[in-house]
Specification:
- By secondary structure, the protein is an alpha+beta fold.
- It folds into three domains: 28 residues; 234 residues, Thrombin, subunit H, CATH 2.40.10; 100 residues, Pdz3 Domain.
- Strand 18 and strand 19 form a beta hairpin.
- The radius of gyration is 33 Å and the shape is globular.
- The chain starts with a helix and ends in a 10-residue tail after the last strand.
């Protein structure tokens, strides 16, 4: 009996000590929670105030920018430093809502005379009516408040009548200001617009990363304005064949269908980074857009001159094949381009470049293929001088060439 009582008291003491320890540990946990909760609230307050400060600064910057942009209705908005990408569940819808009012449908037509006939079936050459025959449709985007519309050259090429339909269904006639078959860009002017028109903002595509979200807007197959989403799949793509010579293109998997041509490719801020221009029909999810950097240069030239001034060298060239190397006795380690023909009265001809010369470098940059030479020349301006290093009869020569404006005969009349 005594052993049972002693054991019971021992158990009670142990239980009491366990209870006290539990209360002590619980108190420590409560104090810890209160302490860290206060610290987190303090940090949240700091972060919130920091965000408010940043937003207030951004608002002041936006106000200054808007004041400058309103100076002229003909000003084209171009952000050289793209804004940070937004975050949230509505960013796609918000981006579309921002740019959609400036996206227009373009309908083109050719004009034909319809002659009346008499009772004997003979037509009267003096009694006729002019009829519009629908030719095609596409998309464009308004880039200035006075009605400058940016689109593709192939959308309006050979059109005799152009009508533009705004997002609010208002219709206007439009006339071409300038077209450029090489870049496949054209600008139109809306005739007699009613008040200021909605405009889109162009921004640099250079800071876009592969995998960034993009949105393509347009009028596919004439069904009406449509938005599709995808990613920027690649940059600096080229499309070159007998009818196309497009370079530095943006590639996207956002759906681009017939009728989307001339529509904008935008980032998640609703800013235009490119103009949709082509697709590969035999593939899925491979579309291309002309980058905003090209657009800016071409549009400036078209507005100022009605055409784009481009420098040219005036040679036909090809890459060194094994047969050409053997015929000319050129070492296999020599990298360069062989001149197949020099155009008469061209910059190359005037500087003394000859057939079968091997161009190995321009301005110190090695030229391993034809595209490199074309890219270097295109980056120059009319009147620039370029130093061409070449091989002729196993001798190295350096020739200074002054670039001239490309004659119109070298520019395709259509894409």
């Amino acid at each position: 009996m005594l052993k049972k009582i002693t054991r019971s008291r021992g158990n009670s003491a142990i239980s009491l000590m366990s209870g006290i320890a539990g209360v002590f540990v619980g108190a420590l946990l409560v104090l810890s929670i209160l302490y860290y909760s206060g610290a987190l609230n303090h940090k949240a307050t700091d972060i919130s105030s920091a965000q408010t400060t940043v937003e207030q600064r951004d608002d002041s910057k936006n106000t200054d920018t808007e004041d400058k942009e309103k100076a002229k209705d003909s000003t084209i908005k171009y952000n050289s430093s793209p804004s940070p990408m937004p975050v949230g569940s509505n960013i796609v819808a918000d981006a579309v809502a921002k740019v959609a009012p400036a996206v227009v449908n373009i309908d083109t037509a050719t004009l034909a005379k319809t002659y009346s006939t008499d009772i004997f079936g003979f037509s009267d050459p003096f009694d006729y009516q002019i009829q519009e025959i629908p030719r095609g449709m596409g998309t464009g985007v308004i880039i200035s408040k006075d009605g400058i519309v940016l689109t593709n050259n192939h959308v309006v090429n050979k059109a005799q009548s152009i009508r533009v339909t705004l997002s609010d269904k208002t219709k206007y006639k439009a006339v071409p200001i300038g077209t450029d078959p090489i870049s496949d860009l054209a600008i139109l002017k809306i005739e007699d617009p009613k008040g200021d028109l909605p405009t889109a903002t162009l921004t640099s595509s250079e800071n876009m990363r592969i995998g960034d979200w993009v949105i393509a807007l347009g009028n596919p197959l004439g069904v009406g304005q449509t938005a599709t989403i995808g990613v920027l799949s690649a940059k600096n793509r080229s499309l070159i064949d007998s009818n196309i010579d497009l370079r530095n293109l943006l590639q996207t998997d956002a759906a681009i269908n017939p009728g989307n041509s001339g529509g904008p490719l935008v980032n998640m801020n609703g800013e235009v980074i490119g103009i949709n221009t082509a697709i590969i029909r035999s593939a899925q999810g491979i579309g291309f857009a002309i980058p905003s950097e090209t657009i800016r240069t071409v549009v400036d030239d078209l507005r100022a001159n009605g055409h784009v001034t481009r420098p040219y060298l005036g040679i036909q060239m090809s890459e060194l094949s094994p047969n050409a190397r053997a015929y000319l006795g050129i070492d296999k380690n020599v990298q360069g381009i062989i001149v197949g023909r020099v155009e008469a009265n061209s910059p190359a001809s005037k500087a003394g470049i000859k057939n079968s010369d091997i161009i190995v470098a321009i301005d110190g940059k090695e030229t391993k293929d034809v595209r490199e030479i074309q890219s270097i020349i295109r980056s120059k301006k009319v009147g620039d001088k370029v130093n061409i290093k070449l091989l002729r009869n196993e001798e190295t020569k350096e020739i200074l060439v002054t670039l001239e404006e490309m004659p119109s005969r070298f520019i395709r009349s259509q894409r």
